[in-house]
Every structure is written in structure tokens, then in C-alpha cells.
Amino acid sequence: MEAILLSLGLADRINMMKKAQLEQSQKIISGLEKIGTLKQRLEAVLISTKSMTETKDSESALAAASQSIQAELRSIGIKSIVFEELAKDGSSHIKTLAGDPAIASNVSVQAKTFTAEEHRVIAPINWKGHNFGTMTVYFTPESQDVQDEDLFFLENTTQSLALALQNIYYQDNLKHLVDERTAELKTALVQVEDRQRKVDDILQNIEQGIFTIDAETNIGDEYSTHLLDIFKVNSTDMKTMQFEDLIFRQTRITGDQKSLAMESIRAAIGNEDLYWDVNSHHFPDKVVKVFERDKRHIELEYKPLCKDDHVDQIMVVAKDITDKIKLEEKLQEEEEKKQEFLNILSRLVSLDKHSLNGFFVEGEKIIVLVNDNLSGTFNESTVFRALHTLKGLSRAMKFSQLAEAIHICEGELVSSEHSSQEKASYLRPKFKAVEDTFHSFFQVYNQVFGTEMDDLSSWNLMQFVAEMVHDRIESIRAAGTTLEDIAVRDQVVHWNMEIVSELRHILIHLINNSIDHGYLLPREKNGFTRAIKMSLVAYCKGDDIIITLEDHGFGIDEEKVLQKAKERGLTIGKEDALNVIFDDGFSTSEKATMTSGRGVGLSAVKEKVDGLGGHIDVESTLGRGTKFLIRIPKALAVDLDNSLVS
């Protein structure tokens, strides 16, 4: 009877221990799931933040936030997402972002705090004292309970939405907002890492890749099943696998590094603790396993298992830290972008705005000139002079990064190893680096000073023509020609800033073409002495904006155009003679200038007009002048929200 009672008591004790062990495992699994969810939520917030901050209007930002919430919380069951927008005058406007629009009629108050109620979460959208409104997420009655991780995601997403709206409304506060948001994300990462460290302490010998190695570096028969998932191996292979195969296979670790690690491990096993202290720092602490479809970052930890004061075996704990590395890489990328912004900013703020305006205006012209040459007839000397000028301007402004990129392009041009066309081919990718660097400087300049080149927010044709004529005065005087009259009539009250840069390029080519080929070159070749007289008009007509540029110069010789077309193997009628001047590389001129190349400019004009969904025509009478007529859709060319043009 005593033996039976003892057996029953022992069995009961064993059952209690198993129950405690099961409860601990469930807590560990629950902790892991929460950490995984937190990581997933934080990554979703990062992606959502990037998506929202890249938008240019509040509607797009709200749509991005709504899409992110629906995608991340789809398992809960979202009934509707409503945004109560608060206008500057204090009035409110209800918008249904997702789900049943009838719910919007029940929205009543502007919330002041983030609140989670039964079947709904209310989030105020405000930043730095600016209240943009309130977002309310309604859940279906049968939805599962909203967890802390869901609320964490919603609160951070709505904060990111507030940042995006603030960024849209107040661009001049960009740097400060980016710094604050980056700091918040870093804090969130630290909090997640802290939670993971606490869970790691619990999981040190359970839900990790745990195995032992002996003096021959064989892997012991007992290991955690999680090890198979981390290293993507099966249990059959594990029976004969050694440490070197498991850790170093499918990595880029060098042979010398492998040899040092393996010699150190063999030296540490079977000897006193002193040998462990001397050799353990040579053990690999991290490896990157490159598999067919992905790669994993694995962190390795080693613990000596001693017997009679000697290291009998080594226990290795492997942890998959791929998600953490990816998040750190994203933060590092954001940090590098911010640092690049600050480096450029530190140089820009030391210069006066007038000098910067001049640099970017002249630089953009040179960028256009070089691109025209690279896409059409390549004039090596013209490109070299243009690049040399831009390099001098960059050095004067102490933009060393830009000057160095241009210097590399110059080196390609002066090389005697390639023909002219080969040089153009080699130059394209190098000049792309110049163009990207130039525009990165201009982008920062635009964000900081809140203006486009030459204050394009108030841009009009009169101002543009004045600048163009000022730039050409010297060449006009040098050619012995006088400027009689340039009339400008701009009836477009508010140009759309999205196409101003394209329109400037178009008019730069056309005005330079008219001055050079209508007046300067005919004077040099034909003794044509008429003073420069031009008119530029822009007006609305139906659904189009009409832009005409008319000169009273030498005009286009249609017979010469037909002759040149025939030499190029083109068969055209007299009615199509003028349209052929828009072909790439076509020109009747025997001389190219710095401002109007040999047939490249008009080809570039047609390409840009076509790209805007427009059309260009030309009329010309020899000896009386030439007229270009451009049609561009009004919906694209005019800021309809601000325009007074009906």
C-alpha cells in the first residue's frame, strides 16, 4: 500500500510539473507572437509613413492611411473608416474613407485624445498644436477583440498621417518634422529590441536553434527543432552534419576565417577554462546564409559545458535576426538621406539666394544642352565647353561633389581612345550622375527656401522672356544686330507649376532658334540686316492653351528643306516640307551654335510638347518670318483651382 501511495503521489507530481512546463511554453509562445506582431506593426508603420509622406495632397495621404489600416487589421473586421476634417474657419466636413458611408452621418465631435471604445477607435489627427480632424475606425459587431498591438499600430499610423498632412501644409518645416519622426521610430525600435531581449532571456534554451558540438565538432544528437527552420536543413542531414557544414555552408566567409574559427573551437574543447578565454573570441558571432530565394542573418552565442574543470562540449544558441537587420537597414537608409540633406543644406545656407538662383538657372540650361547633344547629333566641343562652364560655376559655389562628377565627364571627353560617337555612349551614364547630383541640390534648395527656380510660383511669360533676352544681349550685340521689339502677351493668370520647367525648356529652344536662325546666322551668311522683332502670346481657347512665337526674321527656305530631306533619303511633298524640321538631327544650317544645335533643339521641342499631350505646328514665309504654334491641354497647363481664366 505504501508503494502504491508513493507511486500515485509521484505521478501527481510529474503531472503538475508537466502542466507548469506547458504553461511556461505557452507564455513563451505568446510572448514570441507579441514580439512578432510588434515587429510587423512597426514595419507596417514605417511603410505606411513612407507612403503617406510621399503624397502631394491630403486626399492621397488619407487614402494611403486608410489602405494601410485595412490591410494590417483585415483579420479584425473593419466596418467603416471615417475622417472628420476640421477647416481653418472651425467648420467640419465628414469624409468616408472606407466601408459604409451611412456611418458618417453619426460622427459628431472632434476628439482630443486617442480613445478605444467598444467596436470603434477614435484618433485625433493633430501635430504641434495644429488639429487636422479626427479619424474613427468602426469594427463589425462580430469582430474579435482589438489587441494592444492593434492600438499601437493605429495610434502610430494616425500620428504618421498627421505628420504627412503637416508636411503637405507646411513644407518649410520639413527638416524639423523628419528629425522628430525619425527619433520616434528609433525609440520604437529600441522599445521593441528591449522587449525582445527580455523574451530572449526566457527563450535562451527553448525556442531557439540550440545544439552542442564535441571535440570533433560533430553536432550532438539532441538539438532544438527550431534549428532546422533557421538553417533550412532536415533531420536526416543533421545526423551526419558537422559544425563547419551547418554554419559556413552557403555563406561568403573566406577560407582563412573558417580555418581560424575551426582551429579555435577545437583548441577550446577538452581543455581548461583558460583555453576557452583565449580562443572564444575567434568564434563566428554572426553569419549570413544565402539561400535560393532569400538570405538570413543568424546570430550565434556560445556557452561552455564543463566537466571536471574542463570544457567537455560547447552549446551553441542560434537566433534569426533577419527582421531586426532589415529594420535597422531601413533606419540607416533614412539616416543617410537625412545626412545628405543636412550636408547640402549647410552649404546652401552660407550663400545668398540671388547667387543660388543664378546658378540653378544657368545650370539647368547646361543640363538641357548636354542632354540634347546626347540624344541627337553629338557635338563634342560644345558639350565639353558646357561641362567646363558648369564645373567652374560649381567650384565657385563650392559644390565639390557636383564639380567632381563633372570632372569625370570631362575626362571621358578628352580621352583619345574612343571615337566621338563612342564617347557619347560612354558619357551618358556618367552625365546621369551629374544630372542627379544637380537636381538633388536643387530639390533641397527648393524645400528650404520654398521656391522654384527664379521664384516660379509667380512665373509668367513676361518675366521669362526678360531673362532670356538678358542672357542673349551679349551675343546679339556681338553679331552686330539690334533688338527692336519683343512683345509679350500672357493671358494665362495661373500657370500649373508642374509643367513650368518643361515649358521653359520648350521656349528656350524656340526663342534661341528664332534669334539664331531668323536673324544672326542669316546676317552672317546672307547679309540679312533686319533688327530683331518677335512676339510671344499665350491664351485660352476651348480646352487648350495656345502659345504662339512669331518672328519677322529670315524665315525657312522650303526649297532648301526639300533638298536636305532628299539628301537624307526622305520623300516628302511641299505641303509637308516645314514639318520635317522637327525630325531628329534635321537642319538646313551649316553651322551649330551654343544655344541652338544642329537640328536637336526643335526635335527636343516636339518630344516635350508630345509628352505634354500637345501639338506643335510651324508656318513660315522666306524673307518675312516664322511662326510656331503650340497647343497644350488647359487641364494640364493651368492651375484650375487658382486660375481666373474661364
Characteristics:
single chain; alpha+beta; 14 strands; 19 helices; 646 residues; elongated; 5-stranded antiparallel sheet; 5-stranded mixed sheet
Describe this structure in words.
The protein is of the alpha+beta class. 53% of the residues lie in helices and 18% in strands. The protein has 19 helices and 14 strands. The strands form 3 sheets. The protein has a 5-stranded antiparallel β-sheet, covered by helices on one side. The protein has a 5-stranded mixed β-sheet with strand order 10-11-12-14-13. Strand 10, helix 16 (497-526) and strand 11 (532-541) form a beta-alpha-beta unit.
Shape: elongated
Helix % is 40-55%
Largest sheet: 5 strands, antiparallel
Largest beta sheet: strand ordering: 2-1-5-4-3
Question: Given the structure, what is the number of helices?
Answer: 19
Strand content: 15-25%
Distance between the termini: 106 Å
Briefly summarize what is shown:
With 646 residues, this protein is α+β, with helices and mostly antiparallel strands. It contains 19 helices and 14 strands.
Task: Draw up the topology in text.
Elements lengths: L1 H52 L4 H15 L5 E9 L5 E8 L15 E3 L2 E8 L2 E10 L8 H22 L4 H30 L5 E5 L12 H6 L3 H4 L4 H6 L6 H14 L4 H7 L6 E5 L4 E13 L2 E11 L1 H27 L4 H23 L4 H17 L3 H15 L5 H30 L11 H18 L4 E8 L6 H30 L5 E10 L2 E8 L6 H10 L32 H12 L3 E7 L3 E9 H4 L9
Parallel strand pairs: 10-11
Antiparallel strand pairs: 1-2, 1-5, 3-4, 4-5, 6-9, 7-8, 8-9, 11-12, 12-14, 13-14
Helix pairs in contact: 1-2, 1-3, 1-4, 2-3, 4-10, 8-9, 10-14, 11-12, 11-14, 12-13, 13-14, 15-16, 16-18
